[in-house]
Design a protein that fits this description.
4 helices; 128 residues; 79% helix
């Protein structure tokens, strides 16, 4: 595999991750109660935390998307590491809140990001 070419399937999957992150982040700004139904978002402090969560989602998604558009493998690897840190924390939050959907979804996303990063690393070394 050529080291300077990002495989199409990685571009597609990371592009989907970017779109999903932008959607989730935008939805958190518009309607955070969609994601956490048992929290009262009418207070300004709680709303502020939801906006910080939305900003985090959008920032990571934008960085992943920018990496894919630039076709920059090193940049994508760094952004996937940041994404893995984010979803690892989401798994912990899911465990604390007993939210099986959050646990499974975040675990899947994290494993996928690690797998993609591993494949990019192997490609950079020239190993199939």
């Amino acid at each position: 595999m050529n080291q300077s070419v990002m495989p199409k399937w990685i571009s597609f999957v990371c592009g989907f991750m970017c779109l999903l992150g932008l959607f989730v982040g935008s939805s958190l700004y518009i309607s955070p109660k969609t994601f956490i139904v048992d929290v009262d978002f009418s207070t300004s402090g709680v709303r502020f935390l939801a906006y910080m969560w939305a900003a985090r989602q959008i920032a990571i998604a934008a960085i992943i998307g920018f990496s894919v558009l630039r076709k920059s493998v090193p940049m994508l690897q760094v952004s996937l590491v940041a994404y893995c840190l984010m979803v690892f924390q989401d798994v912990i939050i899911g465990i604390v809140r007993h939210d099986l959907g959050l646990i499974l979804g975040s675990t899947f996303a994290g494993v996928l990001a690690v797998f993609i990063s591993f494949r990019l690393s192997r490609q950079a070394r020239g190993t199939p």
